[in-house]
Design goal:
By secondary structure, this protein is of the alpha+beta class. It is about 30% helix and about 25% strand. Bound molecules: adenosine monophosphate (AMP).
């Protein structure tokens, strides 16, 4: 769950990268970083926290040049770690190279263990660094060939931007798990995880990088390569459900439209006889609209989200009921009192949030609370770049739908089916990754997967 951008050949490259990251902030709040190129040297600044807090005019001025890449990293609970902030920048025998990565390599830990046994010294605990080690060791004369060769040895999800003197290289893995789009502004080529980044910098969306495509951008323009053989597509459908911004175009489809259609399908599959449809903001808003439109029932913003919730606040010394959830969400009582409500959210992971929200709604006077979720039960963890808890903590991996309904205290609970979801996203099951709902992983997890997980667990704590 990261966001990446790349700019080639713009006098304000660092500024554009900054703005692009600002638009992609929802994809990661732990750290933000930019690397630029000028005079065949690369310059890096990476800061913990939000992009707007970490960068100012002076810092951006210290990032000269017309080419830039940038990265925002997803915040996980526990420790933040400055060493893991991207883009990474290092010197190797071909010169400087920087990389920013969205996705997760499933076998990086195995490859890393081999490299370490062979003397490599790693600076971070990320999978991304493994790529750079392989690139540095490759005997290929050209860095683009070295990148191709290195990525050919790794598996999993990778949307990547590399910056080397004179070239910006963007890559999407052969299954296309994570998005990556190409755009243009003032004759300058840009790449970004989501098209909403283009809107902010006044760039026009040109196209998605195709899965398995490597794009090399230099002064002569864009050169496209297909270095790897065809694989089955496995676009992450959860991007459409939750992660992406509704104003983005993702995998060729408008996110808000897909979400509304998911809501409409949800109504077809699980109608509820209610007075009002209320979404959980912000994640359930568009599915809620779709549900309400299809049902003909009124749609109301019956829960208000506080958008200024930071990491820390001073907790009351006396216990306040549902304090944790109230900090973020508060019910509009007059919209709930005496009414039967359909409460729409995008997903239910541990179930703890829903439980508290249902209780909030009841305390606000709702007479019935029917929870509707715009994706199927989340039964398996993601190993391709979405932060999910371990299987034991996934409520649907351990409880039936009826048991979950009882746990969250709802009058009824309905999940959208896989068929409903693929219909809404105008795709087919064998074109998307559905591992979190089906436990079927499109890229086999190596036997040492547990090692891989431990590696990432280490970064989390
Ligand atoms: P819970 O069931 O308490 O674990 O939380 C479910 C809520 O978390 C839903 O409202 C989702 O919008 C949100 N959510 C789902 N997946 C993620 C994720 N990977 N990271 C952060 N929030 C998520």
């Amino acid at each position: 769950m990261c966001g990446i951008v790349g700019i080639f050949g713009h006098p304000e490259a660092a500024n554009l990268a900054y703005l692009g990251l600002y638009a992609l902030q929802h994809r990661g709040q732990e750290s933000g970083g930019i690397v630029t190129e000028s005079g065949r040297s690369l310059h890096r600044r990476a800061k913990m926290g939000l992009v707007a807090d970490g960068f100012d005019r002076k810092i951006l001025k210290d990032l000269p040049g017309e080419c830039a890449i940038g990265h925002v990293r997803y915040s996980t609970s526990g420790d933040t770690n400055p060493a893991n902030a991207q883009p990474f920048l290092l010197q190797h025998h071909r010169g400087p190279i920087a990389v920013a990565h969205n996705g997760n390599l499933v076998d990086a830990a195995v490859v890393r263990a081999d490299l370490e046994a062979d003397g490599s010294i790693f600076q971070t605990t990320t999978d991304t660094e493994t790529i750079l080690h392989l690139v540095a060791r490759s005997k290929a004369a050209d860095v683009a060939d070295a990148i191709t060769e290195s990525l050919g040895q790794l598996h999993g999800a990778f949307s990547l931007v590399f910056l080397v003197p004179g070239r910006l290289i963007a890559v999407r893995d052969p299954m296309g798990f994570r998005p990556l789009s190409l755009g243009k502004v003032d004759g300058t080529w840009v790449v970004a995880s989501e098209s909403c980044a283009f809107d902010l910098i006044g760039a026009e969306y040109v196209r998605d990088l195709e899965r398995g495509e490597m794009v090399v951008i230099d002064v002569a323009g864009v050169h496209s390569f297909r270095p790897w053989g065809p694989e089955r597509p496995a676009r992450c459908l959860f991007e459409h459900v939750y992660l992406a911004r509704p104003d983005s175009k993702l995998f060729g489809h408008s996110v808000q439209r897909v979400r509304k259609r998911m809501g409409a399908e949800l109504w077809e599959e699980h109608p509820a006889d209610v007075d009002v449809v209320i979404p959980v903001p912000d994640s359930g808003v568009y599915a809620g609209m779709g549900y309400a439109n299809a049902s003909g029932r009124p749609f109301e913003m019956g829960l208000v989200r506080n958008h200024y919730v930071g990491r820390t606040f001073i907790e009351p010394t006396q216990q306040i009921r549902n304090f944790g959830v109230r900090v973020k969400l508060n019910p509009v009582r007059e919209l709930m009192r005496g009414r039967r409500i359909a409460l729409i959210d995008d997903s239910l992971v541990r179930g703890t949030t829903s439980k508290k929200i249902v209780q909030l709604c009841r305390e606000a006077g709702a007479t019935e609370v029917h929870v509707r979720i715009s994706c199927p039960p989340t039964v398996a963890p993601c190993y391709y770049g979405i932060d999910t808890p371990v299987r034991d903590e996934l409520i649907a991996a351990n409880k039936s739908v009826h048991e979950i309904r009882d746990f969250i205290g709802a009058d009824s609970l309905g999940y959208l089916s896989l068929d409903g979801m693929t219909r809404a996203a105008e795709t087919k099951e064998d074109e998307v990754c559905t591992a979190c709902w089906t436990d079927k992983y499109p890229v086999a997890l190596p036997p040492a997967q547990s090692e891989q997980l431990r590696l990432f667990e280490k970064t989390k704590r």
